[in-house]
Amino acid sequence: MKVSNLPSSDFDHYLKNYLEKVPDLSLLESLDYSKNKVIQFYKELPSDKEVYRYTEGKWTPKEILLHLIDTERIFCGRALRFARNDKTVLPGYDHEDFVKESDANDRMLENLLEEYIAQRKSSRLLFKSFSQPTLEKIGNANNLMVSVGAIGLVISGHELHHLQILNERYL
């Protein structure tokens, strides 16, 4: 499954911004692509920028990394439930509260990257396990209709969105 193969009925218009950032790669390739970009960014990040905020109230690079991890976990949970034909309308989550309660800035960047890599390995295995018909199943998360496959691609697009901001405003 690639972004170019996604019917518009597979995702809510709100998610289009993220999907447009994903290169025309397969779902698994896109997860690898964005993972490599994230790791490269954080390995090259100067240590004095780890807790930098470009303006008051904005997240630090460490907080952004943990936000990516948290979001991926939540999105994988949604994908699994939709893949297993759960018709429950899944609630959203307040990413601001998640970041505020994360203590990301008190953690070592190396530890956050280790957690990120472990989560991505798990996510990749999850999406690899889904058949094409399963990737096409649609569910409702936060009142947005989205397919299982689109969720995987949105994970990559969400990361690329944040990497763009990190490169433009933090370096």
From TrEMBL:
Ranges for domain DinB-like: 36-165
Pfam family, any one: DinB_2
InterPro entries reported for this sequence: DinB-like (IPR024775), DinB/YfiT-like (IPR034660)
Domain of life: Bacteria
Protein name from the UniProt record: DinB family protein
Xref: SUPFAM superfamilies: DinB/YfiT-like putative metalloenzymes (SSF109854)
